[in-house]
Every structure is written in structure tokens, then in C-alpha cells.
Amino acid sequence: MNAVLGGEGGDPPVISVCVIAGTPGAGKTSLALRWAHEVQGRFPDGQLYVNLRGYDPGEPVTAHQALHRFLIALGIEPGSVPRDTDAASALYRSLLADRRMLVVLDNAATVSQVRPLLPGSSASPVVVTSRSRLSGLAVRDGARRLTLGVLPEQESVALLRTVTSGYRPDDEPERLVELARLCAGLPLALRIAAERAAGRPHLRLEDLITDLRDESALWDALSTGEDEDVEAVRTVFAWSYRALPDQAARLFRLLGLHPGPEFGLHAAAALAGLSTGRTRQLVDSLVGAHLLEQTAPDRYQFHDLLRAYAVDQAQYEEPGPEREAALRRVLEWYLHTADAAQSWISPAEDRLRLDPPTEGVRPLVFSDRDAAVDWAERDHDNLLESVRAAAATGHDRLAWQLSAALWDAQSPSAPGTDWPAVGRIGLEAAERLGDRAAQGHLLTDLGMAHTRINQLVESLECHQRALAIAQGRGDRLGEAHALNLIGLIHLRTRHLDVAAHHFEQAISAFREQDAAHWEATALSNLASTHYSAGRLSEATTVTGQALAAHRSLNNERGEGNALRLLSGIQREQGDRQAALSSAQQALDIALDLRDHRLEGFWLIALGDAQRDIGEFGDALISYQRAATLHQRLGDRSRQALAWHGTGDTYHRLGRNREAADFHRRAAAAHHELGDHWHEAQALDGLGTALHDEDPEAARQHRGTALRLLADYDDPRAVTLRGDIERRQTETG
What we know:
TPR_rpt; Tetratricopeptide (TPR) repeat protein; TPR-like_helical_dom_sf; P-loop_NTPase; 732 residues; 67% helix
């Protein structure tokens, strides 16, 4: 490995990407990790590692999921990780640009898993392990390939001797050679065989080899004609498995049913229907036999080949009703534990009405929000796989309930792109059941999920379907939620009268249902609509009502949003000091909540207030911080709003070239997003910045802005068009 990567002492490696390819069980991961440990001093900024699970029986880790983990490790707040893979990859490369780190991408299956994870600088090299040659990396990315074969006979025997010497020092060399040949020189098989031999120091090695040969004959009869090396590994698996006590063997094969490659002790206990104490004893015996790997306290995972073998044994040896019961227990365990986590993570959301858990299912309880979030982060992938497993095995009620529970029990670090796929699986399960209430619930969640990733057409369709279901069922509260969420989409697309109508209907319905939290939320949305339309009198009244309601409910997030709105109203009414104070109070709340999304948005309001009061330097700092946060969040719309504010500030400072640059960037971003309203405002700002230097260009930009604004008829739009037309006349 040193020769492949190059470099001496503290010098950085000269090769950017190295692919270690080889047969299953050939020790690729061990070699990569051992080398990484030996050279850690060359990389002062640390190392990044991810198991991409490319050959696991379950779902592989996607490039975006790996980027999400890496960015958090690099110091990005979980909620600030961009949802778009390209944006996340760009942020990842920018963070590594000035660092010297080693990146280890273990068990990759495809080039598409790997390429977004490649840094842009050779100062941070990448080691990739895979069963595949990944030729595309060599062709396009200049990767060097190191192909691992099996261990030579002498080294295979040395490995066996190292493990067994303290227990059986008198084994004959020729017998060790025979055992090594039966293991095909594969390190994984050799390690398991050596542990088996060490665990039976008084049994002759010849007898152990006879057992292994017998197991090999049995496996040959069941062979699927795969690679000989794979068959050798599986033969050793079978040999070790057959030696397990009955309860340990049963747990091993039941763990093959677990939805996900890594699991906790309590999930394993649910699968087995045993106490956690007894399960811990059995799991420890599996770890000792190298049939499981312990990854953290009470956390375990399979090697992908061992998981496939466990799945086979469950199918061959575990009766169908027992498999069914075990899977149902673990799915119920995840469902009830997610429900418990929701009470801390999303306390305002209604809890699902769940049946009591089956006997033997003991879900976790959480002492505080941090404990709930920690569990949700650790088991996020398992919850996703649980939804898929429930649907695939006909447990439709569990499938829709698991997907709904996961939506409300997601940790702040969960990627926004993960849930919609399982949300659709849950919705299909609810449709198969004919459960209209469940369908409405999941359509509402799907609508919100699509909004988070800027898929507004899909979001509107989901909420309209949810509204029809609620109305058909006479579900007044569900109807109110749908009306409020549809209003938000119309607000974002600037159909302001339609938005206001939906919010007013939602407020009335929430009030009828005594849903004070949601009534206050809809009031804030109505206030935003009035403000966007330029109806400042109405906006002032409703904002005051919303602010009082949120404060009475001790809802800090709602209070901060109302203060942001109030700051904009006060600024336009000429009360600049009050506007500055309100924006600063909102920002303080965002900082206390440690919410970068709110901080970035409310910094724009603070920058606007600082600019209008003449604190131009502070305003530029606020806008820059807002733009940086929104870049990390992948929110290009709000990043462009910060650029627009920066352009206006530079214009007031008389620095029109800088002003024009920022307005151009803002206009281009809004144009790409199809946001005509904000594109027009940015073009107007660009025209103002170019007024003296290039009057004709200024006229063209303002003319485009007027065309973009032609379809808007709210008071703010009418005023803006009049202002632009006046400036056009002045330019002419």
C-alpha cells in the first residue's frame, strides 16, 4: 500500500485515488484500515470512513447519505446539509480544499456511489475497497488499482498459527496447511476457522478438518455455482454455525431477518423474543465466533457475506410461522420506539393510535429530547428498511404506521430526500387496506416532504388529495391542516389572494377544534400573506395577534417568525429602530434554538433593518452570514435574497460595480428557480446599479422586470411596477 500511494514520511501521497479490488473475504477492508492507521500522521486533519454496503443483502448506502455523514463529521450542522447531492458534494469538496485528510470508502459496488465522494484535491487521497474493479474510476479519475488475491499458503498458515498458538501449540504444520487450503487462503474464512480451532483446544485438528470437509460436501450439494472463493467462505461459515449452541444458532439466523445490516441489542432481543440480558450473552458468543462484529456499546453488524448466509439459514431452518413472528416483533419494536421518540422530537404532532405491542416486545423509552434524537440518528436507516420490509411481507398496517411514525420521529440530521420514497410505500399500503384516514395522514406528510425539497407541484397535489379525503370523512381538523398547507404553497408561488382565503378557512376550522397551536401558526401565515401583498395595516393587526398567541403558548419558533414579520412592517412604516430591535430579537431566538435555517432567514431581516438605518457594514456582515448558511442548506432562493440585499447595500455605499455583480447573481438564481417575482426585483436593482454607467443596459433590465411583473395585481406589485416605470422614464 505504501508503494501504491507513494510519499515518504510526512509528504502527502502522490496518487489521489486507489481502488483495492478483490474476491469476497480477501481482507480488503482490513488492509485498508490497517494502512490508514499506520499513516494517520500524514493526515493532520484526520480521516473519514464510510461502509457503503455495496454488496449487502439490503439497500446500499447512497452517495448522498455518505455525504450527509461526512459533512456532519466536518462540522456542518445536521440541518444545514444540502438536500441536493450535487450541492452537498460541492460543499464537501470546498471543506476539504484546504485540508489534508484520508478518505476511506469501504465496500463500494458502483462508480456512482464513489464519484461524488472524491475530494477535489490530491492532498486528501481516497482509498476505495470493492469486489468490482470500478474501471470507470481509473479511466476518468486517474485511480490506481490494487487487486488482492488470496493469501499465499505460508501466510495463511502464519495467520492460523497466530490465532491458535496460545491454545494449541502442538498442531502439526501439515494439518495447518490442509486447513488453510480448505479456507482457500481467504482471511475472513481463515480467521473464523482459527477461532473455531482455538475454542476446542483438546480436539485433534484432524477431526476439525474432517468436520470442515463434511460441511464442504454438504455445501457443494446446495451450491449455486458461484465463485469458488465464495463457496469456500460459506463452507467455513457453515462449519462455525453448526458448532453454535441451539439458542445462539437460532439468534444468528433470526438476525438475518433484521431490516438493516446494523442493529442494537434491544432490536435483537425483540427479534428473538428474549430478555436483553440473555440476548447479550448470545450476541457475545456470536461476536466471539467472528459471526458478528460489535461496532459500539450494544451495537452490532454483519459482514455482508455473513448476513447473506444468515438469511439463507433462516429460510432453510426456521419454520415460516417463526420467521413471521420474529419479523413482526422487530417491526413492532421499531414502530413503538419511534412513537416514543416522536413525543420528544415533534411533540405538537398527533400521536398514532397504535395497538399494544406483542408479548416480548419492549420498546425503548427516552428521558429527554437528546436521547430520542440520538436514537433516531442511529436507527434512521433501520427505520427506512423497516417500512420496506413490512410492505414486502404483507404487513400493510405496520408499513403505513412505520412510515408515518418515521416522518414525525426524524432527527434534525436526517436528509430530506430519504423519507418520500418510504412515504409512498406507506401510502400504497394504506391504499391496499382501503384506510382513508391513513391515506390522508400520509398524503399530508408527503406534501410537506415535497415542499421541503422544492417540489411544489407534487406537494400541492398531495395536499389537495388529503383535503378531499378529510372533507369526505367529515374530519374538520384534517381539513384545516390541508387548507393551511395548500395556502403555504400558494404563498410561495405568490397567488396571494388564494393563499389568504385558504389561511382564513384554516384559522376558522382550527378555532372550532380548539387547536390553539395550529391556529397561531395559520395566523402567522396569513400575516405573511398580507405583508407580501403590501397590505401593511392588515399585516400589522394579524402579526400582533399571532405574536401574542405564540407567546401565550410559549412557542419560541412561532414568536421569532412573528418578530421577523413585525420587523419588515416597522421598517416600511419608517420606525427603523423598532425594526432593528424586532429583527435582533428574532435572531436571538434562532441562535438559542441552534437552528441554522431560521438563523439564515432571519439574518436577512436583520440585514434589511441595518441597511435602512445606515449601518451598512453590519448589514453586509448579516447578508454574508445569511448567504453562507443558505449555501450550506442548499436553499438557493434565500441565498439569492441575501445577495439582493448585499447589492442594495453596495449601491447605497456608492459601490455600483459590486452592487451590479450581486444583483446579477441574484437574478440568475431566481431565473433558474422560475421565481419571476424575485427575479424582477433583482433586475430592477441591477438597472439601478447600472443607471449611470450603462443607461441602455439599465433600461433593458427594467423592461424585462416589467414583463415579469405583468401578471401580478396585488398592491405591492402595482407599486413596484409604477416605481420601475418611473425610473424607466427618468433613464429615457
